[in-house]
């Protein structure tokens, strides 16, 4: 009896255990640890076992029915695409034991694509309550989503262990706020992000790219976060926001064109720090941060409130609309006097504060911050620019130690520029292209393509080059290479159409022969009607040559009312300008050729050019983005002897221009 009773107890407990565990996963599949699962949208079937390449599952929905165990692996087939689905990972790995649940790829070809669309909350979303960590995700392409990878834990608990590597994000937009509006503060905080990590410790984000999305990353509340070799390029709102982190680092990364196109009513930044401790930015480039639609700031790095012992080490910060650094205590969420130890060491800073603010540091509401600035090279955009703005005073912050810094001014690119129209036979067009007359473009002509992989290539001699074209609501994206090396991506989409826009610029090349290629990618902003690309002109920067006659020379006649004086960035830093129709500049020379050097910008108009008394050309000097030291007109092959060149202000302009100004920088005689 006792044996029978004992057997009954054992059987009863076993049945209870089976019942309890069965009830615990009515919607899940039980399995042993260490299993590899395969998923293919092209050849899979959800009735398959999912455990071999010959019997993969088909849908992400099938994955969502399975609770995975430490050591399991989920492999997405390369070349496949999943649309309209969100992956909700179930189960947890063991970070402490190094026993991850891994999401990766199999087969060959392009990365697997998860493209959930606007009807889904994210591409990959971890559950707030059940997620405890131990997931590793690699090798995916995530696009067209309101959020990319979303791992958001409530602050009442934390997860441990998340590894994100070799991932690409694009078109992560549309969460809560419109893509073309300027949101208020609370809406902007919750804009779309490629990566969102909240209340997760021990995170690695490595070899990741994100582009043409609202925000690259939001990393909030965590310890031991490492961001390594990440490229955040062309983000409409922000680059990366790092807040409430300890013992963390962002290194070997690039944050480019943050705030591009849309901006924020409360300000834009490449990298923002809030309430971090012992967290650094190291060996990272932050450049071209924008401040559109009346957005404030446009700063590269924003130390905004309560950061303690956070450093910027060996960073390369250049060409940002705002200052290199904004260092402040924000009264809305900061504690006055808490932020300290903001050390800036061994970095390179050049051409920042382009919206007319200090080039290096803007600093306020930050008393008691004792920090060090040392070993840096700091080049202001101009000699008159403030280095630091400390409550309107150009000085170092009180209590800071500044030593061994080299401070100077950016030297403008030395040379004259030549415009090469799209119609030039020296440009090679590969693929399918349309060409023809387009009013308002340079010389009223353009080339256009909608075929991915089509490219325009131009070989030139000089030290720099720019690609000039248009932006409008039916254009997409292009990649640019210089001498076969990737040099950047360009977004041609804009809600408003504009012509003669500088889309890409590269300077500082060794004087010699180089080749630029612009290639249509085939993707676009979700708001764009097409994924097309236009080519209007290339601008080649060539070294200054002998024979240049500066506008200040006595041999030039300026008839009528002309302004003349100092002009930063012009040849010899001087120029003459007039907006009065009929005014002219005239120079006589002896030689076989001559070039008129001047500027193109958004307030310039048209001029008639006369050579030896004959009208030879009408030149339009409008460009949305300013281009200095341009060869606006050139004559070559003249018979050797005395000649006269006259530039006459016409008084008319393109509709996009705000004025009819013409300027004269120099003449070059050959």
TrEMBL record:
Top-rank lineage group of the source organism: Bacteria
SUPFAM superfamilies: Pectin lyase-like
SMART domains: PbH1
UniProt cross-references to InterPro entries, sorted A to Z: PbH1, Pectin_lyase_fold/virulence
Name of the protein in question: Right-handed parallel beta-helix repeat-containing protein
Organism: Cohnella soli
